[in-house]
Structures are given as structure tokens and as C-alpha cells.
Amino acid sequence: MNLIGLFSLLLTLWVSEVPEVRTIYVAPHGADTNPGTLERPLASLTGARDFIRKLGTKDSVWVKIAPGDYYMNAPLELTSADAAPIVFEGMGDQVSFYGGVPVRNWEKVNDHLWRAAVPPPYSGNIPVEQLFINGKRATRARMPNTGFFQVKAVEETVLDKGNGRLPEFAIQKVRLNPTDVALLKNESPEDIKQAVISFYHKWDVTRKFIDHFDADSSMVFIRGKGMQPWNQLDAVTKFKIENVKSALDAPGEWLWKEDGFVYYIPREGESIASISAHVPLTDKFITIKGDPSDPVRNKAFKNIHFKVAGYRMPRQGHDPLQAAATVDATIMVDYADNIFFDHCEVAHTGLYGIWFRRRCTNSRITHSYLHDLGAGGVKIGDFLFRKEEGYVTANNLVHNSIIRDGGHLFPSAVGVIIFHSRNNEVSHNEIADFRYSGVSVGWMWGYAATGVVTQIPDENGHPEWTEGNFKSPATGNEIAYNHIHHLGWGELSDMGGVYVLSEAIGTRVHHNVIHHIYSDTYGGWGLYTDEGATQVLMENNLVYACKNSGFHQHYGKENIIRNNIFAYNLKGQVQFTRVEEHQSFEFTHNIVYTNSGEMLLGNFKEANVKMDNNCYWDTRTSEPLFQNMSFADWEKQKDKNSLLAEPGFVDAENHDYRLKSQSVVRRIGFKPFDYSKAGVYGSDEWKKCARMESERAKKFADIVTEIEK
């Protein structure tokens, strides 16, 4: 039985194997002192939890939630004390839980600026860091209004070297272009210390408060951990600055001021009479944490909308770490089994959406909509490898869900990431509109990895690293039938539609459609095996319109890349980096189709790779070069049974890669696959929800055009 069938059976058994199912009710007009009846309902999820605890039952309980808006100032917390199987189910389409409060009584400052008093518990000097207007994230006043400025130079002074991989404390002096930061000259020193500068460097983002600004030299000073030697701030680093009063100058921008008001420049078409605004109170909706010897079991959330949760940046800021690995989620799950989220929405967050973290098993996210995310969508497994615990998060499912529009506060976050976790399935999802990778699997670096995280991070979120000799536990994961697209946006680098690092033995990546992956400088790849990826199978994927290539292997061992279509990628179609003695990968039965760039990038001549039975075509010429060789000469080195032939797509220019005839591809053993099955399925309304807005797609295309000039 597959994971989908297994989870459906488990949910049915909750209510069928017990002698009685208790039903209690929650409604907006209820009270948590009520008995939870239909006539006298409870008022909150926490009230329902407390009521069930008082019952002392281990029988199943169905919590039926009436339509309406509910406001949370703290997350629902479930522990091992909550022994009863519970289904929290929204009755109707409009059951919404807000982790924040409405902002009302807006007034005009002038025709182009509105303001409203921030409601309690915000008061005094407590700043607001996120504001959501009419179901959209508003932009905190920033410079520039769009795009980025570029750093001129960086100097670092190390004050405490410490004993770790990075200096414990350092100050960075960053020289900027005077015209870029002219607005800062209008700000007081106190206001400048509240400004947040975000540096985009390769695959990471460093986010800091500005300690000091020297107007004469146009230098800003920041502090914290020393820079990473492998990914420093430098003269190609991009940056933006937000929370600057003088920068409040564009529609959709807002700012909190010490007078207790938020100021907002309305977008076109917005009316002060009908504005709906919220500020977050809590950063989380739900925390589920069992005991290692007594996990939380059998909890389901169905047909519930969770909206508006925040993030408050600590004074030390946020130091860079790949995939924003340390960032929490609005729904945190630890030591748990059979936790289900079905037909749920998680939106307008400051963090990741949902995290099945430590020892989470047999849990699922299905037919759910995660969007407008401060970080990424879903995290599975712990990024800390605790070898002493003996087993890890396993057997979880993310299926038929829409996960998109993320990275608003943490751009390096991933759509779905699997850390130290095995036998999970990520299938039939729409994963789009992130600044970094779509799906990432594995969290070790190198063969029998060294430098493995084994200790809990300090209070600043900095993990300790230790030398080790461990096999990656991220094995047997399946990434299938996903539609992954419009990633990168020219902001970060070194990313993939599906990115596999560490050995990750038994990972299967198949029947995905991946396209429009566009990095800043390098590394916009469709399929990407990195850092010792071993025995990974990638087959029956359609990959097109990626910046650097459809497939890239940095280094790895015995991977199989077969029966894929790689088409119309910009710089190259297939890329390889590190030559190793063992066989790096097998590349067979693939169709490679191009009208730009190189056919093969990297040192394929010296590589130990098996290339055979592939079909290549370049629409520009009948004699394309392979590693600066003719196809005939290339065949003598590799690809002995491959073809240089037009494969016969229906309309490749418009990305219709169906085959008019199989007469050509049959000769290389290519087996046609139905790539239209990738992505979500179900009602027309659900599939329509998954489609990217044409204006959004055009904006992506315009960015690519501008950078490629």
C-alpha cells in the first residue's frame, strides 16, 4: 500500500475502531467556560483541548468548528498529555484562525497616505514588523523600491576568534555607493539603528540591523559572527535596506512610527472604507511536542485556514545559513505520529509553514495551500543529526498541495526541504515562486560526511560543528509528479528545482515538470546532485527554461539520470563539475534539445560517466559541438549509441513536448511519459488556484530579459 492509501486508512480507523466518538463544538460566539455543545459551544482550539483533557478520555473526539473568524494571541499546544485521537474540523469554507489582530479606523493623512493606530497589545516602543493589507503582504518602506543596490567593498575586523569554524564576534564595515544610500542622510542615528539591511550573497542572505552609518564615507557597520570564508560579503553582493522613514514613497509600502500608528501608501484600487488589515501577535499557530518515549499521536486538522503569523528579528539579526535551516515554522511538530493536515491553508507568515521535525512519523499534508510565506513551505526532519537517538523522522507525505510565494523575510528558504529523514514522499504538488530551491533532499556534505551538525545551536541560532564519519539518514525519499517552477528570480545562486546533497541513497526523483529556474550569477539548474549525492535515480522528468542547465552534478557517485527531457535551457543543457575516479553518473535514454548555449558544460572528456542512447538536437545548426568536438568525434569518446536527430516534438517553442511520432526516440529506447500529470489534481477550482498569474509570470520573464541583456 502506498503512503496515500495508508494515511486514508489510518484516519478512517481512528473513528471506526473505538466504541464511541465524542463530538464537541467551537464557534466564534462561544465561550471556553461552556460545555462544548452545539447550543453552548466553546470559543477556541485551546479551549477545546482543555475540555478534552478534563474528559480524561482516550476515545476519539471530533471538534467541529463553526464558520467565522477566530483570533489567537498564542499557539495551540498539544503534548503527550493529549492522549485522545482528535480531529479538528472546520465546518464550511470560512473557518479562519488569525495569529494577529485587525487594524481598524484608518484615516487619511493626505490623498496618498493613510494611517491607523496599532491595537493592543502593541504599545509604546514595541515596533510592528509585518502588516497584511487586503490579504496581501505589504512592503515595509525600503530602498530601492524594486531590485537591489550593490556593495562596493567590505572590510572585517575580528574581535573574538573563538574556537568554532567562524569567528565568534566581528564587525563588518561595508562601503556603499553614496547615491544609493542618500536617503539615510535624512535619518537620525536612532532611526538608522532600526533600519534593516539584507545582503544577498550566493545562496545565502545576511540580515542585520545597521549599527552605524557614516554619511561622509557612505559606510554602514554591522556586527555578529564572522563572515563565512566560503561565502563572504564582497563587491558582487547585492543589498536592500528597509524600515527607513524617508523610503516610504511607493504604493503598497508601509511603516510603523513611534507615535503608535502604521502609515500606508495604498495600492491602486484600494479604498479606505473597505480596507482589511492585520498585524501579527504570535509567530506560531500550533506546536505539537510529545515526549521521546510517548509521542503525540492521531491528531488531524481539516478544512481550517491559518492566517497571519509574524517574526520579530532579534537585535543580533540573522546570520546566513543555507536554506534558512534554523528558522522555525508556524506549525511545529516534534515527537509525534499520525499528524494530519488536510484541506488547510497556511498564509501570511513570518516563518516556514509546517515543520515535521524530530521523530515525526506517518504524518501528512494533503490538499493544502501554503502561500505568502516569510520563509519556505514544509520542512521534514531535523537539521541537527543526533546519532545517539537511533532513529529519525520518517514515512511522511506532502501531497496534492500548493506551496508557493515564499522567502519574503528569509529568501534562502526552500519550498519543501527534507533534512535527516527517510522514506518520505513529496508528490503532485505545485511548488513555485521561491528565491531558492524548490525541493531539497539531504543535509550532509561529502561522502561518509564530515562536518556534521550534532549539537543544538546557541541562542543566536549558530550550530556547532564536529568532525564525524556518518552515513546520511536521508534515504529512500521520493519526489514525484510535482510542478516546480519560477524559482530564483535572479536574486540568489547555486539552486535547483530538485536539489539533492549528501549520499541520500535510494532517493527517487521522477515525473516532475521543472522550469523557469533563474539564478543571480551561477547555478540555476533543474535537477542538481551535489556534495556526494549517491545512488540517486532521476527519470521521466521534463526540465526546460533553466538558466545554467537542465541537469548538473557537482560531485557524486553512481547516480542514474535516464529517460528525461532537457530542453531550451539557457547556458547549457547538461553540466558536470568534479572529476572523480568512481563512476559519477549514468546518463542514458534522455532527449536533449537546445537553441542556445552549450550542449555539455564542464569537463565531460575526463569524467567517469556512462553516456549512451541519448538523442541530441540543436535548432541552430545541424553540426553542434560537444566539448568542442563534432558529434562524430564525441561518439568515439562517449555516447556511442546516441543520436543527433530532431526528436519530433509537437511544438517545442511553446513548450509542448509531446511527440508527433516515436520513430526517432524509439531508436534510443526512450519511453514517453505523460508529463501533464505533474502538479495538483482534483476540482477545476483547485487546479485553477494552482496556476500562476500571468502578470507574475511576465514579471519573471522581464527579470530574465533584463539580466540577459
Describe the structure.
- By secondary structure, this protein is mainly beta.
- Among the domains are: 100-141 and 248-279; 149-247, Immunoglobulin-like (Sandwich), CATH 2.60.40.
- The strands form eleven sheets. The protein has a 15-stranded parallel beta sheet that branches. It has a 14-stranded parallel beta sheet with strand order 3-6-27-30-34-38-42-47-50-54-58-61-64-65, with no helix packed on it. A twelve-stranded parallel beta sheet has the order 4-25-28-31-35-39-43-48-51-55-59-62.
- It is globular, with a radius of gyration of 26 Å.
Which descriptors would you attach to this protein?
single chain, 709 residues, mainly beta, Immunoglobulin-like, 14-stranded parallel β-sheet, 6 helices, 8% helix, globular
Shape: globular
Total helical segments: 6
Strand tally: 67
Second rung of CATH, namely the architecture of the domain at 149-247: Sandwich
Largest sheet: 15 strands, parallel
Rg (CA only): 26 Å
CATH topology of the domain at 149-247: Immunoglobulin-like
Spans of at least 5 consecutive residues whose pLDDT stays below 50 are 13-19, 450-467
Structural class: mainly beta
Termini separation comes to 52 Å
What is the typical, i.e. mean, pLDDT?
A: 93
Strand content: 35-45%
Name of the level-1 CATH class of the domain at 149-247: Mainly Beta
Provide the fold topology.
Layout: H1 3-16, E1 21-26, H2 45-55, E2 60-65, E3 68-71, E4 76-79, E5 86-90, E6 95-98, E7 100-102, E8 107-110, E9 113-117, E10 132-133, E11 136-137, E12 139-140, E13 142-143, E14 149-150, E15 153-160, E16 169-175, H3 189-192, E17 196-201, E18 204-209, E19 212-214, E20 219-224, E21 238-242, E22 253-256, E23 261-264, E24 277-280, E25 286-289, E26 296-302, E27 305-307, E28 329-334, E29 336-342, E30 345-347, E31 352-356, E32 360-361, E33 364-366, E34 369-371, E35 378-380, E36 393-394, E37 397-399, E38 402-404, E39 416-418, E40 421-422, E41 425-427, E42 430-434, E43 439-441, E44 452-453, E45 465-466, E46 478-480, E47 483-487, E48 495-501, E49 508-510, E50 513-517, E51 524-530, E52 533-534, E53 537-539, E54 542-546, E55 549-553, E56 556-557, E57 559-562, E58 565-567, E59 572-576, E60 585-588, E61 591-594, E62 598-601, E63 609-612, E64 615-618, H4 631-637, E65 643-644, E66 649-651, E67 656-659, H5 684-690, H6 694-708
Parallel strand pairs: 1-2, 2-5, 3-6, 4-25, 5-26, 6-27, 12-22, 25-28, 26-29, 27-30, 28-31, 29-32, 29-33, 30-34, 31-35, 33-37, 34-38, 35-39, 36-40, 37-41, 38-42, 39-43, 41-46, 42-47, 43-48, 46-49, 47-50, 48-51, 49-53, 50-54, 51-55, 52-56, 53-57, 54-58, 55-59, 57-60, 58-61, 59-62, 60-63, 61-64, ...
Antiparallel strand pairs: 7-24, 8-9, 9-23, 10-11, 10-24, 13-21, 14-21, 15-16, 16-20, 17-18, 17-21, 19-20, 22-23, 44-45, 66-67
